[in-house]
Design brief:
This protein is mainly alpha-helical. It is built from four helices and no strands. The radius of gyration is 17 Å and the shape is elongated.
Length: about 120
């Protein structure tokens, strides 16, 4: 596992593996548990047991390293593709994705957490 992580981080894996396995499959692997955790603390059985910034902070601490790792892995693995079009498309997409993730994180912490803390 450590070798595989190093290969992705170093950019020696094929682009399709970095994009489809890390980015696409990784989204599903992390998104659903994060959604369940957040729901359980907001409207679920653990509602009211912690302030809303606790589950939001836990999810952010899990999501942030994932975003950084996938971004670096896809950028570094992008030259490992046959057609140059895919290299630049993957890079542009990842830059757009990271910008949206930063904006969404900002929204959560400046709008949603304070709004839900008042309830």
């Amino acid at each position: 596992m450590k070798k595989l992580v190093q290969e992705f981080w170093g950019g020696s894996r094929p682009l399709w593996q970095a994009f489809w396995l890390l980015f696409i499959v990784g989204h599903f692997v992390l998104f659903f548990p994060a959604a369940i955790i957040f729901w359980s603390f907001v409207d679920g059985p653990l509602s009211g047991s912690f302030p809303i910034h606790v589950p939001a902070g836990v999810i952010t601490l899990i999501w942030l390293p994932y975003v950084i790792f996938v971004f670096v892995a896809v950028l570094r693995c992008s030259p490992n593709v046959k057609f140059g079009f895919f290299k630049w498309t993957a890079r542009a997409f990842m830059v757009f994705w990271v910008v949206t993730q930063v904006f969404k994180t900002y929204q959560v912490w400046t709008y949603w957490v304070p709004l839900m803390s008042c309830n």
